[in-house]
Amino acid sequence: MAGDGEGPPAGVAGKVTCAAWIRRPRAGPSVSGSRSLLVVYGRGATPSSPPFLDLLAFDTAACALDSESEPLLRVVMGEEGADADTPSAIAVHPAGDEFVCATAKGCRLFKLLYDDFCINFVSRDSPPLQSVGPQRCLAFSTDGTKFAIGGEDGHLRIFHWPNLSVLLDEPKAHKSFRDMDISLDSAYLVSTSTDGSARIWKIDEGAPLVNLTRSSDEKIECCRFSRDGKKPFLFCTLVKGNDTVTMVLNISNWKRIGYKRLLRKPISTLSVSLDGMYLALGSCDGDCCVADVKSMQVSHMIKKVHLGSPVSSIEFCPTERIVISMSNQWGAEITKLDVPADWRVWQIWLVFLSLFVVSAILFYTFFKHTNLV
């Protein structure tokens, strides 16, 4: 299963600067179920190697990359020592067939072409994205019809996907972007600023809806919408003095519901699993924790995974209880979570079948040994 992209460039590969999961839309006969996931790594430039993207297969059974030293595909992003072309963030379309990669110059769009034995990258022209400058935040909506970018210059752009028609263009949305997310129904976008403010945007109307309230000594930093489709909440990390908590807001009125101190230290990033069951938080000193959304209790603590370096991002695997976490110093780390596994459809039917068989046996035994006369 090899691609036809460029071979590995000479020199020592740079460290991983960003990473993302890709769930293959179709797994051919050459790909087993345990290898239907891919990981795309962005690597930085070195004096002897250009910046590039690596595409690697992920073995869910072994919870490991199949071969990190020999990627399925490698695409050069620039020239040796060209830091401006170094990938800084990657957002993958929910369909798994394309992704956007941000650099200091702007964003590049890549199409993934699959067949039974081969995968290829194809770079696509996207003038609305190519010269936007450095972006702090990239986000696709869950249904894949919206794409948003938030820049270091505070410029917010929301596009309709895939034609990239502009839904919202606000040059002064923030002083500079801190974090961003799109709601499950694609109706709202939440964004936070480096100055501690946060705003809600109505996407279809292309306009700001409300500024989240905060006191003068509070800063709202990370933000994520709930994903389970049942409880429309917004999760935000709130800093007040030396204290950091995770607060929950009701998106019907944007009022605060409550607070929880999940990670007793400054928080650098926040993420929600695709099924909405878990929250992941990364700290400024390299720790991570995963909390159950229903109970708001920590289910898994990962100590010193990035050893003193702020965790810049955490992304849940689309199909497994696994996360990729990133830091500028240590690059990417893959961690299998010690949390309850999902009930799959076949498991539920197996339980029903077992109950039916047990009931039939009990019914037969009862009537066999019962005298009805």
TrEMBL record:
Keyword Transport recorded: yes
Residue spans of the WD repeats: 185-211
UniProt entry keywords in alphabetical sequence: Endoplasmic reticulum, Membrane, Protein transport, Repeat, Transmembrane, Transmembrane helix, Transport, WD repeat
SUPFAM superfamilies: WD40 repeat-like
Entry GO CC: endoplasmic reticulum membrane
Its membrane topology: Single-pass membrane protein
UniProt GO MF annotations: guanyl-nucleotide exchange factor activity
Top-level division of the source organism's lineage: Eukaryota
Localization: Endoplasmic reticulum membrane
PANTHER family: PROLACTIN REGULATORY ELEMENT BINDING PROTEIN, SEC12-LIKE PROTEIN 1
UniProt protein name: SEC12-like protein 1
Annotated organism of origin: Hordeum vulgare subsp. vulgare
